[in-house]
Amino acid sequence: MIFFILCSLLNIEFNFTTGSFLNNKKATELRIFYEIPRNKLTYTKSKEEWLARFQISCSLVRDKKEIGEIWLIEDLLKDYEATIKKDSLKGDLKILVEPGKYKIKIYLQDLNSQRTGTQHSIFLLEDLRKNYPQQISTLQFTDKHKQKKLSFEIYNFSKEPFKLNYKVAQLKDSISFENQNFVNTVLLEIPLDSIGFGTKIITLKIGELQIQDSLHIEEPFWINTYEKRVKQLYYIAEHWEIDSLLNTPLEHRKDSWEKFWTEKSSTLGIQDAKEQYFIRVDYANKHFTGIQEGWKTDRGKVYIHIGEPDEVEKHPFEIDQKPYEVWHYYRKNFNFVFVDRLGFGNYELEHPRYWQGEIQFK
Fold it and tell me: Where are the alpha helices (DSSP H) in the chain?
């Protein structure tokens, strides 16, 4: 019961963006694009599959008037391993609402664990029903291996053929639309190798209508974060393996990195060891960083080795005692005590003081 109550207090992290669109009846439509890490949801077994059930509520406030909508969503996966992989559940939700500036609140509740998450934003819902024979919706970007996908809709009020000209960095092309559809869906695949890194301007033009947006392309992992990630292998790799990876020439880094993780996944008996390991490293850096990086701290070390504890007792204001935390891993029969001896938030492992554990993912 204690574990259940504590879980219900932990927030679910998720992301969302909003966009201005029209439907087939030319009514203004707000779309909410959500992205939820699957390993943040709770899946229960349903026959031979695994089911997550959650509810998303949307509240929109404008001029002291509030409207809202609620959606019940299910995600069904074939095996347990799929529930803990580092991928995200993505989707979009639609609300008919008049153009204007709104405050938006998105509330997510996991119906299996009762854990919740909340996000707030302010956005301007544009009126796309004016000025030009054609109009373009909000642009949406998604990532794909070696590509960026750009999707949007074109609304043809004139019902006449038209041409879309687009430019992304040095790439130029056009698409002709001969049909009489009011809603025309466009998906552009942008090869990253062809446009380089940094911020790129995207220009879309139909007749006199021109829209511009920007797209930022980060340098690949092999260039900008490789050495940092290799050093973070400290708990899972031998010293000679880390040295070997650090000394690998740039052109061979990708192959050496993949070879290391293929062998490590085989040894550990888990296919997504790399994803699981860095989920823990990133969590440690986000929550335990202080005097030193989170992954180097004692709490980070335990978290990376074993994962999230079943229960955390926090004692920040005890009389005649230093602040301390107790981490309980009931299923593994482990208990850890961390003490903030200097009062700067650097919790050091008090018990067991000289613990040296092995990486565990199951």
Answer: 2-9, 192-195, 221-224, 226-231, 239-246, 253-268, 273-288, 298-306
Q: Please state, in angstroms and rounded to a whole number, the distance separating the CA atoms of residues 156 and 183.
A: 7
CATH class of 131-218: mainly beta
Q: What is the pLDDT of residues 104-155, one digit of tens each?
A: 999 999 999 999 999 999 999 999 998 899 999 999 988 765 678 899 999 9
Domain 1-127 CATH (choose: 1.20.140.10, 2.60.40.3880, 3.40.50.300, 2.102.10.10): 2.60.40.3880
Q: Do domains 1-127 and 131-218 have the same CATH topology?
A: yes
**Measured at the alpha carbon of residue 336, what is the angle toward residues 334 and 340, in degrees to the nearest 5?**
175
Q: What is the pLDDT of residues 141-162, one digit of tens each?
A: 887 656 788 999 999 999 899 9
Domain positions in the chain are 1-127, 131-218, 222-351
pTM metric for this prediction: 0.66
Beta bridge partners of 176: 163
Nearest C-alpha neighbor of 280 from the set 303, 264, 298, 260: 303
Find the length of the chain: 362
**Confidence category of residue 178, pLDDT binned at 50, 70, 90:** very high
